[in-house]
Amino acid sequence: MARYTPEEQKNLEYLILMLLGTSKKRELSLLQIEKEMFLLRESAMKLIGDYYSFIAHYRGPYSKEIYESLISPLYLDDDWIYENSRDKLSGGDIRLTSEGCDNFKKLKDEIVKNKHKELIEIFAAMDILHDLYDKLTSKELLYFIYTSPEFKKYITKSIVYDEVVTEKTKESLRKKLAGGIQ
Predict the structure, then answer these.
(1) Using CB atoms within 10 A as the burial measure, which of 59, 65, 85, 171 is most buried?
(2) Rg (CA), the chain
(3) pLDDT of residue 147 exceeding 90
């Protein structure tokens, strides 16, 4: 996190709060948050800018800035809780606290009240991401990223590729997509 100014770090933590708050579950795995932030950055770069970076890593695209902000937030340290998991793929769960829910509501109300166009568009993009990806398992989400030609450079260091890119995962994902993700 050292490369960020305090203002940039605070803004990154608010983006995380927005992502958690817009999820109907109010709880996402570390992998889901990281990969949804990756997909958000890829699809809404003009809104977010080059705000955080990703590199090829053991479980696909990885952002040290996002990981550190999730595990040890500097500004919103009471807004979510990290719970470790025995599941090696998900990386544990991040859950909004009641304070985080309150802060998210205040933030959203302020953004809507002030008609902040870019942030309203980011909220809309996050809603779409959740509709598409929140129901996927960690394997299915990684399968989607790993098999997308534009993301090939992020799988070069994966240690779970063979476990993820299987016919079983492909069929599971196909069934969910054919039935509509709700």
Answers:
(1) 59
(2) 16
(3) yes
With the C-alpha atoms ordered 49, 11, 43, 167, is the resulting torsion angle positive or negative? positive
State the pLDDT at residue 1.
Answer: 40
d(CA 180, CA 182): 6
Inter-axis angle of helices 138-146 and 30-43, nearest 10? 30
Q: Tell me the CA end-to-end span of the chain in Å, nearest whole number.
A: 35
**How far is residue 180's CA from residue 174's CA, in Å, rounded to a whole number?**
10
How far from 16 is each of 33, 147, 164, CA to CA, in Å?
8, 26, 26
- Helix runs in the chain, H state only: 6-22, 30-43, 45-48, 64-71, 98-113, 117-133, 138-146, 161-164, 167-179
**Look-up: residue for tokens 């937030």?**
73
pLDDT digits (tens, 9 = 90+) for 162-176: 999 999 999 999 998
> The whole model's pTM is what?
0.90
Specify whether the CB–CB gap between 82 and 67 falls below 8 A. no
Q: Confidence class of residue 47 from pLDDT cuts 50, 70 and 90?
A: low
